[in-house]
Amino acid sequence: MVKDFQGGDDTNASFYAGLLVSAFAVAEACTAMIWGTISDQYGRKPIILVGLAGTALSSLVFGFATNLWVALAARVIGGLLNGNVAVMQTMVAEMCTRPEFEPKA
What letter would DSSP give residue 103? Predict the structure, then answer.
């Protein structure tokens, strides 16, 4: 996919592939605390649904991307809208009723 964006040239393909992969993680790390705060106010389930919808939409845009910048924007938007990891970890920890299992949750 990255080679197609570069016109078949693979000299910098690994750099751009790494940029696409890391864009999601960086954007997610920047908004994880914000999604946690929002989930405290509005509930866990709506935030998980927003995260799933955002990930689905960004994956769709990423799949149909015709150039590198659209693909990068899709990955960043997907990361910004993905608050699932921190919220789900909190949900699992809240469901755990036995204190000896709380560190594992």
Answer: T
